[in-house]
């Protein structure tokens, strides 16, 4: 799959996930907004119901008070001072009925029953009786209303709206409207001074306070207000959107899986490219010695060459050198197979790091001097006994020196230095530094990856498969040590190895 195709799929999936998250968030916000509006509407309706109930209680209070006063007046005087009397007179002036009323009863007394000869007259007289009763009731209610308007606001708020009574009315209203949530309330005047409040009411920390005038008909300067809020309103609102949590969880899981898939796709793409480069490099590395050996074999078939001892010796030397070169490249490939085996067999033993380093320096000295370079050693570690596989540890030092030789500057003689020192009491530090071309910052993090080769322009300008440093890193890790590189472009590189000592 092309890298552009992977990027296209990544962009499409990214926009899809963003769109899905946007829709979910907008849906959740709309639900929260709707639930807030529904909750506020229910609370306002419940508080208004409380105010109506309190007004009805106050009306009942004044009505009972007026009736009590009337009853006391009737008991004190046989005939009430508030008696009334209506007469029903026929067209000829004859008195038919007399309606007498007081605060206890309405009495209708017939005066001339003989004149009521038909049903129509009886019906009319009954209407007059009901009218008298209506006037009586109306007068009573008017008096109660006047008392409410003139005297109600003068009553103490503790009598008009007792705290326990208000709490009971609120609880009943909320239960009837389906709200079973703890609340705090206070009754305050227009200046905010509270007459009474619940224990948990705190004006400073209160949020989303609902306010309602308890007695709307009171004068403005005497109005009292009911302030109410719900401390756990947010929990109540968000409890209604808990079903969205699994949706977000599954979306997050899909996002993680998608990102993992994209990372794996790019990694596989990169590995594929690196393996293709490896095959190209290996083909190039094998092609040259094979061609040389083939050419030398053809020359051996020539009788004139076989008759010349010097030429024969030269051709044999060429074949031997190219065979060694092929064997070295094959070993590199075998090193790659070692990297893929998690349980590679190592023959760990006590080895003197100084001896191994000295042997590798001796092997490389002639090659380095051939290119006009120089190699020095400063083996200052007092304790250099480490637990490693001697062959593989030798290959580690060999690979690092070989890399320094490959990536040298063409116009400046190579200067290579190997130094050792003890770090603490249980580690040895091995530093291999050079004045080569250096490594770019973006390449430093990748040089220990398999098949990775720092490009210098031409793919085949530097020999190798990109396995050397990956091999070095894996082995140092298996030796329970660590390796890192410090490098600056066009200045040089320094590889630092830390290995545990054997006491």
Describe the protein.
With 503 residues, this protein is α+β, with helices and mostly antiparallel strands. It has helices at 3-76, 119-151, 157-160, 163-176, 233-238, 244-300, 303-306, 309-340, 353-370, 390-406, 441-444, 468-478; strands spanning 84-89, 95-101, 106-110, 184-189, 194-197, 210-213, 224-229, 349-352, 374-379, 385-388, 415-423, 427-434, 482-488, 492-500. A five-stranded mixed sheet has the order 9-11-12-14-13, covered by helices on one side. Strands 5-4-7-6 form a four-stranded antiparallel sheet, with helices on one face. It has a three-stranded antiparallel sheet with strand order 1-2-3, with helices on one face. The radius of gyration is 53 Å and the shape is rod-shaped. The two termini are 54 Å apart. The relative contact order is 0.07. The model is unreliable at 78-82 and 111-116 (pLDDT under 50).
Quick overview:
By secondary structure, the protein is an alpha+beta fold. The protein has helices spanning 3-76, 119-151, 157-160, 163-176, 233-238, 244-300, 303-306, 309-340, 353-370, 390-406, 441-444, 468-478, and strands at 84-89, 95-101, 106-110, 184-189, 194-197, 210-213, 224-229, 349-352, 374-379, 385-388, 415-423, 427-434, 482-488, 492-500. The model is unreliable at 78-82 and 111-116 (pLDDT under 50).
């Amino acid at each position: 799959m092309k890298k552009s195709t992977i990027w296209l799929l990544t962009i499409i999936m990214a926009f899809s996930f963003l769109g899905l998250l946007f829709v979910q968030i907008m849906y959740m916000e709309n639900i929260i907004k709707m639930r807030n509006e529904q909750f506020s509407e229910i609370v306002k309706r419940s508080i208004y119901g409380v105010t109506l109930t309190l007004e009805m209680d106050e009306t009942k209070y004044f009505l009972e008070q007026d009736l009590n006063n009337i009853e006391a007046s009737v008991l004190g005087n046989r005939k009430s001072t508030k008696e009334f009397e209506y007469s029903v007179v026929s067209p000829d002036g004859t008195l038919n009925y007399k309606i007498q009323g007081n605060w206890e009863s309405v009495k209708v007394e017939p005066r001339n029953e003989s004149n009521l000869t038909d049903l129509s007259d009886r019906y009319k007289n009954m209407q007059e009786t009901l009218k008298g009763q209506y006037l009586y009731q109306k007068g009573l209610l008017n008096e109660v209303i006047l008392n409410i308007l003139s005297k109600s606001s003068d009553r103490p708020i503790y009598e008009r709206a007792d705290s326990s009574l208000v709490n009971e009315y609120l609880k009943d209203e909320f239960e009837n409207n389906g709200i079973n949530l703890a609340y705090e309330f206070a009754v305050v005047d227009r200046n905010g001074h509270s007459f009474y409040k619940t224990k948990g009411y705190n004006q400073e920390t209160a949020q989303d306070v609902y306010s309602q005038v308890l007695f709307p008909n009171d004068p403005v300067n005497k109005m009292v207000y009911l302030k109410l809020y719900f401390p756990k309103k947010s929990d109540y609102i968000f409890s209604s959107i808990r079903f969205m949590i699994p949706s977000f969880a599954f979306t997050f899981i899909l996002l993680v899986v998608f990102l993992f898939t994209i990372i794996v796709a790019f990694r596989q793409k990169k590995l594929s490219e690196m393996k293709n480069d490896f095959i190209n490099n290996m083909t190039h590395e094998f092609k040259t010695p094979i061609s040389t050996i083939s050419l030398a074999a053809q020359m051996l078939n020539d009788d004139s060459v076989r008759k010349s001892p010097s030429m024969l010796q030269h051709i044999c030397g060429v074949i031997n050198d190219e065979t060694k070169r092929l064997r070295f490249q094959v070993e590199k490939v075998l090193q790659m197979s070692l990297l893929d085996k998690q349980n590679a067999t190592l023959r760990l033993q006590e080895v003197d790091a100084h001896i191994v380093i000295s042997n590798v320096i001796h092997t490389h000295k002639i090659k380095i001097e051939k290119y006009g370079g120089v190699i020095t050693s400063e083996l200052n570690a007092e304790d250099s006994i480490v637990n490693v596989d001697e062959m593989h540890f030798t290959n580690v030092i060999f690979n690092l020196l070989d890399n320094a030789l490959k990536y040298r500057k063409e116009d400046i003689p190579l200067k290579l230095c190997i130094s050792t020192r003890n770090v603490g009491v249980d580690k040895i530090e091995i530093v291999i530094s050079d004045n080569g071309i250096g490594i770019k910052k973006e390449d430093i993090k990748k040089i220990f990856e398999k098949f990775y080769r720092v490009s210098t322009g031409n793919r085949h300008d530097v020999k190798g498969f990109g396995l050397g440093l990956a091999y070095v890193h894996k082995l140092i890790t298996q030796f329970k040590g660590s390796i890192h590189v410090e490098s600056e472009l066009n200045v040089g590189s320094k590889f630092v190895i830390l290995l545990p000592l054997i006491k």
